[in-house]
What we know:
Blueprint: E1 4-9, E2 17-25, E3 28-37, H1 42-56, E4 60-64, H2 69-72, E5 84-87, H3 91-106, E6 110-111, H4 115-123, E7 125-128, E8 134-137, H5 145-157, H6 179-189
Parallel strand pairs: 1-4, 3-6, 4-5
Antiparallel strand pairs: 1-2, 2-3, 7-8
Helix pairs in contact: 3-5, 4-5, 4-6
Amino acid sequence: MNPKFGGLDLAQRVDNSALVVLELDSGVLTQVGQKVWPHIDYEKIFQSLTKINEIEKFNKICYDRTGVGDAVAKLINPSMRKICRPTVLTIKKKFELITLVKGLFNEKKLKIHDRDLFREITEQEVVTSDAGNLLYRHPEGFHDDRFWGLALACEAGSYAVRGITRSAAIAASPRETNLESLIIQELNRV
């Protein structure tokens, strides 16, 4: 059985919560599933996650600890606490995760098969703050839950992918890699 990794983006107020599932096969992380909860009933989300884990048998799940993550961590089923790892999504960490996703695509070590996820990836905007920092965000009225679920799943599986450079070491300007064209190529091969 191939290793499986999950990324769980937890909603705070009006967003959805989303889980993206990646499977490692021959050194490539391939999206094999996802789940979106259009509500913020964390107890139901973690009950569902436990059921999904019974089927998928995750090796590791990274979840967004920012905001509600600390408060809901107690809802993680005790049998899953060894595999669930909190990740604080600071601006720096978001940049690292986006760079990791780009690096995996560039190295042809990441495949996605869902058009909604693809749309969320392509909707991400890069803006420069007044202080000159690069910021990533989605346009108002759009979602990025699946996108961050993917990024967290990549974080969970990144060290199992042979030959992948650590995320901080492959940092690049967002203009250096056209992530959208890489994803379009990938979706066209499916």
